[in-house]
Write a structure and sequence with these properties.
By secondary structure, the protein is an alpha/beta fold. A hairpin with a 4-residue loop joins strand 4 and strand 5. It is a multi-pass membrane protein.
Amino acid sequence: MIHTCLKGNDSCEYLLSSGRFLGEKVWQPHSCMMHKYKISEAKNCLVDKHIAFIGDSRIRQLFYSFVKIINPQFKEEGNKHENIPFEDKIASVKVDFLWHPEVNGSMKQCIKVWTEDSVAKPHVIVAGAATWSIKIHNGSNEALSQYKMNITSIAPLLEKLAKTSDVYWVLQDPVYEDLLSENRKMITNEKIDAYNEAAVSILNSSTRNSKSNVKMFSVSKLIAQETIMESLDGLHLPESSRETSAMILMNVYCNKILKPVDGSCCQPQPPLTLIQKLAACFFTLSIIGYLIFYVIHRNAHRKNKPCTDLESGEEKKNIINNPASPLEILLQSFCKLGLIMAYFYMCDRANLFMKENKFYTHSSFFIPIIYILVLGVFYNENTKETKVLNREQTDEWKGWMQLVILIYHISGASTFLPVYMHIRVLVAAYLFQTGYGHFSYFWIKGDFGIHRVCQVLFRLNFLVVVLCIVMDRPYQFYYFVPLVTVWFMVIYVTLALWPQIIQKRANGNCFWHFGLLLKLGFLLLCICFLAYSQGAFEKIFSLWPLSKCFELKGNVYEWWFRWRLDRYVVFHGMLFAFIYLALQKRQVLSEGKGEPLFSNKISNFLLFISVVSFLTYSIWASSCKNKAECNELHPSVSVVQILAFILIRNIPGYARSVYSSFFAWFGKISLELFICQYHIWLAADTRGILVLIPGNPMLNIIVSTFIFVCVAHEISQITNDLAQIIIPKDNSSLLKRLACIAAFFCGLLILSSIQDKSRH
């Protein structure tokens, strides 16, 4: 049915009424994501709030679990059959438990007091009771009839309170009858179901011609069905189940206040910003413009259709198909991009599709890894050239790394430290290739022209800039692109500054090699200084307008952390490129087809050292116990496994002569895959998983992955097409375009500042 596929505004209702366990203790609400609230977040949400729990011992359990989110040291002590107060004076939070084990006149009087205008009402009321009525009256039908009468008299009072407060009626959880003591044997699941049906029927019909404002908290029934057998007495739920119910209550109330990224339940759709509205207008005009252009072009084509020569009977061709004009390519590209961005927005901003929390298992990570590795090995071809790190090989390397990173993200494997440490090496390897590739280009070509710089910056940043506008996210949110952009500029400045040392000049005099090493040494000193001087780093990137690019949540700490985590690897890539090209120039390496890179003895020795180094790093990474400590060592040691892999992959001639076309294809669109996953494969800004087809995880992954890969490939084509038009080779035209781009970003900064002021 349609309503099960689309979330709409029912996520709050789904959170309160449906869900399932992922594994043993992770609760997954139907259609949305649940945030796990920390102490500080809970206090921030509930400041100056009063929450009241009213009911029996099961409600008391829920009260304790709720309070422990705010104060984990709160102890379950005191007389169980009395009211229990809790107050955090610093946070100004008040939570009370009121002992009313039966739905009777006593409970009614307590609720009635709150309905009076002169009395301060709780902001949240959680009520429920039934098992005591069953127990005291031995499960008689008369007790059920009395329960119906009492709840009927209470219903209008709850409805009146629900107009100004959040009111939840907790339905009764099932019991584990085999564990019940003799004095509780009359509390059967059949009786509990009858009481629940009565409560739902009466409370839902308490208002005429409109939906009741009293919300049914029925999800605890589903939780209890899975966990009640772990109960100590058959009646009260185990602690983990109570904690889940309390966290659901916290999500229901606080998500709409704090708006956590990974708490999509109960969150309203964010309003469109001014920049988003302008972007929507631009893409709409582009689509209309392209359609008009297409219709005009098609009509012109029809008028110039080949006509038949009456004498010869042959067709005369009146026109020659001209290549598409720049205007047509521009309109077509923005038309396609507009449709793609609409899909992005619907997936991750419009609350249209479901989102689910990630849940890590070893099988969910390692089985897909094995599957793609088998596919990658199956599709192999001969390389066009057999040089170290040739184009096909680097595309292959990027491809399999990107696929592993994607599986890592969707499986939630970041919670497993050994996998996390190995993925950090893959990210470092991308940056290593950045250093290697750009250094090699500038060293060999000596092309420091503005066209090259603009081409690279455009290809790296175009998609991210569009997403920042459409998805209303800061530039630093897509952290990898700022990282490679800054490192590209560092490489460019290092090599372009006087004296410009390139291979052609250095071949004539070895002194220039020494000069380049001095440049690299100075770069390393700058990196070390910034790495160990957080204050200086933050001052540089907190300057306007850099702060607009690199701030996240009001500071640049996240940017400093990301930069520092792989601070040496780009330098390592540049140094490796310099040494490799120097050895290649002196013909020390044997790069012929099928030939080992060095002599047999040296090749075998280096292969042995590489394999040992590779395995040693993996053993160290797998034995990591503390993420912070391992992250501190990572910048210095990640290069070991990267160099080991390069040598293992390139020393044997047969390994250097083949590549996986499967991985290489993905490698060509690796940047687009990395960025697009944020919104159309994952969800809630990578914190969850997008659900296009509910109820069938395998089919959902297949469909969403197919769309995701197709979109990434199409965006890659669009970026390449637009780069040719927007970044022309002619310097005078390029300078005019750059002036227009500068004006665009100035306007964007002004609009962004206006938006920030209106938000605050």
